[in-house]
Amino acid sequence: MTDFFAGIDKVRFDANATDDLSYRHYDAEEVIMGKRMEDHLRFAVAWWHSFAWPGGDPFGGQTFERPWFGETMELAKLKADVAFEMFEILGQPYYCFHDADIRPEGADFAENTARLEEITDYIGDKMKAGGPKLLWGTANLFSHRRYMSGAATNPDPDVFAFAAATVKTCIDATHKLGGENYVLWGGREGYETLLNTDLKREREQAGRFLCMVVEYAKKIGFDGAILIEPKPQEPTKHQYDYDVATVYGFLKDFGLEGEVKMNLEQGHAILAGHSFEHELAMARSLGIFGSIDMNRNDYQSGWDTDQFPDNVPEVARAYYEVLMAGGFTTGGTNFDAKLRRQSLDPVDLIAAHVGAMDVCARGLKAAAAMIEGGELEAARNARYAGWDAQGDLLTSDLGSIAARVQAQGINPDPVSGRQERLENILNRYV
C-alpha cells in the first residue's frame, strides 16, 4: 500500500449524498433496460492522463508533483500500485493504457520490449488479485521525437518499422492481460505542410500498417475488437483519420470495413466540426461503432482540452446513440480526461472521476427513458413513413419517376420537421 490516497475511502452510492465523493446516480447494480448500469457504461480509467500527465499545457510546464514521476522500473511499479489503489477506491470495472504510460522509455526497442513485458507481468498479478479488467491497450506513436513526422505515415521506413514492431509488442501485452479491444490513435499521422508531403504514399502506408495489425491480431488469437480513434488535426494541420466518415472511406479502400470499428471521443468530434452524437450516429449507421472516450473540450478554446464531462444533456444524447446501436459489446466509456493543471491534490483525481461517472449515469438514465418513452423514434418513423409505401423509387430510374410524377399529378407540400417540439421532448428527460 502507498499513502498517496491516504484518508480517502472507497466511493459508495448514496442518492441523498451532499458531498462530492459519493455517487448519487451511478449505482452499479441498478437495472436499466434489462442490464446492470455497470454493464451498460463499462467505465474505464485512462492511465495516461490520470498517472502520467505532469500538468503542462502549450504555454506552461509541469505543475503536478507525483512520487512516481521518473524513468525507472521501480517508479513504474509504484505508479501501478497507486493506479490500482485508485481503481479500488472508484470501483470502476476497466482501465486503459499506452505502452509509454506504464513503462519508462528505454535506450532501444529491445529495452522498451523488456520493460513492457516486465510491467505487464506486474500489472497482471495485480489484476489476478482482484483489480479491474483491461478495456483496451494501445501504443504511444506520437510523443517521442522519432515520431515527429508520423509513425505509419513517416517518410523514413525505419520509423515505420520501429512503430510496427512496437505495436506488435503492445498487442501482445494487451492480449496477455485479457484486453477486450486494441486501439490505434494516429496523433501525428498527418501533415504540417503539403510542400514536403506525398499524400498518396502516406495514405497507402497507413492502410498497409492497419492491415498488418489486423493480420497479427488474428494470428495470435486476439479476439477483441481493433478500433481506430479519429481526430481531424492538432498537433498536425490535417490527419488522415479526420472523422468517422473519412475513416470509413479509408477502411473500404483497404478492405477493412468488416475488421475495424471506431473508438470515438467527444473532444475530437468537436474539433472536426461535429457534435459527439453526430459521430456516434454515423458510426452506428455504418455498422462500425465500438467504444467511446468520454471527455469534452472547452467550447471557447480552439484545442483539445480533454476535460471531464459535466453536461448531462450532451451526455444523454450520446448515450441515446450508444443504446440505439445496441449498447457496448467489447467497448466501454473511457475517461480520456485530465485534471486542470491547478487541481493539484490527490483527492481532485478521485472527485473528477466521481463527478464524471455520475454525469454519465444520469445521462444514461435519461437516454434509456427517452427510448422507453418512444416519442422520438415514433416521430422519426412517422417522418419517413412515406418511404414504406414508395420504397420502389430507389430501384426505379429517372424516366419512370418523371412519368409517375406527371401521371399522378404529384405536387408535394413541405412538411414540418418539428425540431423545436422534439427538443422540448428531449428536455423533459434531462
From TrEMBL:
Mg(2+) 2 binds at E265, H268, D304, D306. Binds 2 magnesium ions per subunit. GO terms for biological process: D-xylose metabolic process. It catalyses: alpha-D-xylose = alpha-D-xylulofuranose. Gene3D superfamilies: Divalent-metal-dependent TIM barrel enzymes. The keyword Protein transport does not apply. It is found in: Cytoplasm. The keyword Isomerase applies. Belongs to the xylose isomerase family. Homotetramer. This is Xylose isomerase. It comes from Jannaschia donghaensis.
